[in-house]
Write a structure and sequence with these properties.
Ubiquitin-like (UB roll), disordered C terminus, 3-stranded mixed beta sheet, alpha/beta, Rossmann fold, 10-stranded mixed beta sheet
Length: 270
């Protein structure tokens, strides 16, 4: 009797240890569920596309930060003429390109803002000198027409003249001359580069200097050294200096006396 009970117990344990078998889904059910998932995804995509297509046109907001009233008005008028699509689908790069076409604009940022719409932020070019009578030039030598004509009448601006394509060269030359003559408290007031590549420089002291395109930098640097040393006491008497000589230079004086022609020694090897 006891053996029979043990046999029954072993039989029950063996059945408990057997892995349970799950019934596999038929292929038709798998295809059905897959079709439902795909249909739901397509429905979500279609609804999203419709929402983007039917969204109201975005609003363009021009930031006034860093702009003068005249600059802000100019940018606002330009951007208000643009046709924009919805908040999500509008081409931000095209809006940036349009803003960059304004000659006085240096940098433009176009961003999406949930509350404000499409925000245009622009930075104007920072002019440091006049170029001719109707243009300005920045530190990079880029010539542009200002939106406000009052910017052309800045008393602290020097005036550069020459071919527009040579503007970076003229700007660099002016900055270099200012560095050399700063210890003498002299700054360039006008600088001209002629088609023959001759430089005409007028300082704020009234002194005029003319120099050719041969060893220009060395000649101008040497002159600054002479003005600080041998010619220091007579700087106020000098009207102009002509450096277009291989072995010297000429000085025109304000007082009535003959122009002095410096020899190679007095020119300090100009």
């Amino acid at each position: 009797m006891a053996q029979t009970v043990d046999d029954v117990a072993e039989l029950m344990d063996s059945k408990a240890d057997r892995p349970k078998r799950s019934l596999p889904l038929p292929n038709s059910a798998k295809y059905f569920f897959t079709a439902i998932v795909v249909a739901l995804l397509l429905l979500i995509l279609a609804m999203g596309a419709k929402a983007l297509r039917d969204a109201p046109p975005a609003t363009i907001q021009v930031s006034s930060q860093g702009l003068s009233p005249v600059q802000y008005q100019s940018l606002q008028q330009t951007m208000s003429r643009q046709t924009v699509s919805s908040f999500f689908t509008n081409d931000l790069q095209s809006l940036r390109d349009i803003a960059m076409r304004l000659a006085w604009v240096d940098q433009v940022s176009v961003t999406r803002d949930w509350q404000r719409g499409i925000v245009i932020t622009a930075l104007p070019k920072q002019a440091i000198a006049n170029f001719g009578t109707e243009r300005l030039v920045d530190a990079k030598g880029e010539v542009f027409v200002p939106v406000d004509n009052n910017d052309l009448r800045q008393p602290q601006f020097a005036t550069l003249q020459g071919d527009i394509e040579q503007a970076p060269v003229i700007m660099q030359q002016m900055q270099q001359i200012n560095d050399w003559y700063a210890p003498l408290e002299m700054q360039v007031e006008d600088i001209i580069l002629t088609p023959r590549m001759t430089w005409l420089v007028r300082f704020d002291t009234g002194l005029r200097v003319i120099v050719d395109n041969e060893n220009t930098a060395q000649k101008l640097l040497s002159l600054s050294q002479l003005l600080a040393a041998q010619l220091h006491d007579r700087r106020d008497e000098m009207q102009s200096v002509d450096l277009r000589y291989k072995n010297g230079f000429t000085i025109a004086w304000n007082v009535r006396q003959e122009s002095d022609t410096a020899s190679t020694d007095s020119a300090a090897n100009l």
